[in-house]
Amino acid sequence: MNGEEVASAVASPLTPLEWKFSQVFGELALGEEVQEADVISTLEFNKSGDRLATGDRGGRVVLFDQIYVKEHGGNRRNLERMDYSVSRHPEFRYKTEFQSHEPEFDYLKSLEIEEKVSKIRWCQTTNGALFLLSSNEKTIKLWKVQEKKVKKVLDMNIGSSKSAGNVSAASSRTSSGPKQYFTFSSFPDCSYNCLSDDLSFPPGGIPSLRLPVVVVSGETRIVAKSRRVYAHAHDYHINSISNNSDGETFISADDLRINLWNLEVSNQSFNIVDIKPANMEELTEVITSAVFHPTHCNMLAYSSSKGSIRLFDLRESALCDSHSKIFKERAPGSRTFFTEIVASISDIKFAKDGRYILSRDFMTLKLWDVNMDSGPVATLQVHEHLKPKLCDLYENDSIFDKFECCLSGDGQRAATGSYSNMFRVFGCALGSTEATFLEATKNPMRRFVQSPSRPSRSLCSSFTQVVRRGAESPGLNASGNLFDSTKKLLHLAWHPSENSVACASANSLYMYHA
Fold it and tell me: CA 124: distance to chain centroid?
């Protein structure tokens, strides 16, 4: 046995998690249609996991706050007597929402710019205020969200004649008599020198002022304000934004370029990657995703449509013309028309410690060790049963869907979405065989049962199986009618410190915990 086989033999595989429904936001009533503007287009936990943000196709950003809920009720003292550990799981409550982007029109290129929020990234919290970046196809905005107390006026200087020193304030009640005025005689101690030469007064003096005399702090409101707008730096659609660990800079990437920004400077950026050829007919690949290293501010990576991941070190060169490492799987022996299409990477994520990179292409998840560029350390089959349907997926453009991926905070598990509102959780530890299908419903673990009374063409099927890596679930192979390409779970995120997953299905946000 070689070293890897020995390690695999002694490794204790993870016990598959039992996932439970936690909560849902935006669930539609029976028969209610989904509005296009309400479809969730991105979601992101902040670094601590106590806040969650979602963006939708209507340009809105919605924020949620975390609260903890006891999973078992009862008196705490009684539970302590029973030596019973109180299990808690995170839940979220609605905090606020604001309009991040509006539809625009580029007159120079005669191009409509959608208001859809494509990416959200949290920034460092300062003085209790929340900061986050949101982007649409062309523009990035920095938002500041904070709570402010609204002051209310309870009483005005109306209906009473008061004097402050020698100043007489006339009543502002409506009367038939002549108006009262402040005059210079009201200020016997004030000389003419204290007034500006160009100050003019109406005949007779200044009218009486209506002033608040009792002001109290009222209700607290959450206010979102745009602090910076980073625009006019991308000719193509922005597909990624990523914050640097230094807390001062971030990158934005489109199909051909990656720009480096300073959070405090919105009118200029530094182009660090440019793969645009002199002749566009020679273009062979595009940038699909870019991300900073979680702890090393000098390192970043980007993925391409050819299935490769390039790692860069800004200490070597500020212009990243050449990569430090490239991660790419060996080309398969047999190639088909779809080989390059399904190899395109749609999303990459660094593990929390930066040791591993998780990538998602159309068919698989791959886990890469940054210290080993010979190939992925694990390849996880997401929906192998769709291989016979690639022609159909190509005809309806589903083969170009961009599924996201995420890693758990401990790096032991990974998750990604699929069709029919399904997502899959894998164990990443050496020797793990965990591979669980879940459905974005209130009963995520329900098993598929095909009713004999219904025709087999029904598209509203659901299935759940716990299978070994690469093995097929019986429900998946039953018939092609189990697959619904119109219901796709593209966006999901893993809580940074809990076994909790948030996923977006159309306009609904589902939360699960284990």
Answer: 15
Q: Which long-range contacts (CB under 8 A, 24 or more apart) does 108-115 make?
A: 113/137, 113/138, 113/139, 114/57, 115/57, 115/58, 115/59
Q: Is 308 left (phi over 0), alpha (psi -120 to 50) or beta?
A: beta
Query: Most distant CA pair in the chain: distance in Å?
Result: 108
The neighbouring-strand residues paired with 132 are 122, 143
Question: What residues have CB less than 8 Å from 335, skipping those under 6 apart?
Answer: none
For residue 226, what are the β-bridge partners?
143
140-154 pLDDT, tens digit each? 999 999 998 888 777
CA angle 196, 198, 203 (to 5 degrees): 100
How is residue 51 written in tokens?
């806040």
pLDDT in tens, 365-418: 999 999 998 899 999 999 988 999 999 999 999 999 999 999 999 999 999 999
User: Could you tell me if 287 and 258 are in contact, meaning their C-beta atoms sit under 8 angstroms apart?
Assistant: yes
Contacting residues for 370 by C-beta, under 8 A, at least 6 apart: 311, 325, 354, 355, 356, 357
Q: What SS3 class is residue 209? A: coil
User: Closest Cα partner for 267 from 143, 140, 356, 77?
Assistant: 140
DSSP string, 255-294: SSEEEEEETTEEEEEEEEEE---SSGGG----EEEEEE-S
* 61-83 b/e (C-beta count within 10 Å ≥ 16 → b): bbbbebeeeeeeeeeeeeeeeee
Q: What is the CATH number of domain 3-151+228-513?
A: 2.130.10.10
The H or E element containing residue 345 is none
Q: How far apart are CA 503 and CA 176, in angstroms?
A: 69
